[in-house]
Amino acid sequence: MKPHILDTLHQARSALDALLANPAALAAIGDAGDALVKAFRQGKRVFSCGNGGSMCDAMHFAEELSGRYRLNRKALPAASISDPSHISCVGNDYGYEAIFSRYLEAHAGQGDVLLAISTSGSSKNILAAVNAAKALGVTVVALTGRPGSVIGELADIDVCTPGGQYADRVQELHIKVIHILIESVERELFPENYA
């Protein structure tokens, strides 16, 4: 067996163990789940955004809510900011930093929630989205990977999951958090599915 296989799995386990031993991060995950439940109960919408692999995570988060996660239930109003025509239009006309904030200006409102995903916690277009969301009265949940990041500091709730030297460990923790958030929503809104 190639040594990097076991090394990678041990690194992933160490990152998960560090998250399990971080009471502040675990509490933030619970708070984020509560914010999502509150928004859905009030008939509000949930948006998500990220770059690269984080955009894929944002898309996965939204489709599991509007589609299906584990069991059949009512669709929930969630959307990722990932439409190529919107991104290319806004990127061309206003610059790449505005691709997420411009979407929120068009679609988001008071009481909605934004899941803003940035492993570095400093992505300029995510920062612009956070600022736009705050101006609109949107609750911001950040998924970051560095303590004290600018995005984390601005967010209403910062779920910070440091994963080690590289972003891939952070992304692995982010997808675990995303699945926990979706399950939290389902357990609260559709408890009969978990009876």
TrEMBL record:
Parts of the chain that traverse the membrane: none
Lineage: Bacteria, Pseudomonadati, Pseudomonadota, Betaproteobacteria, Neisseriales
SIS domain: residues covered: 36-195
Organism: Vogesella margarita
Protein name: SIS domain-containing protein
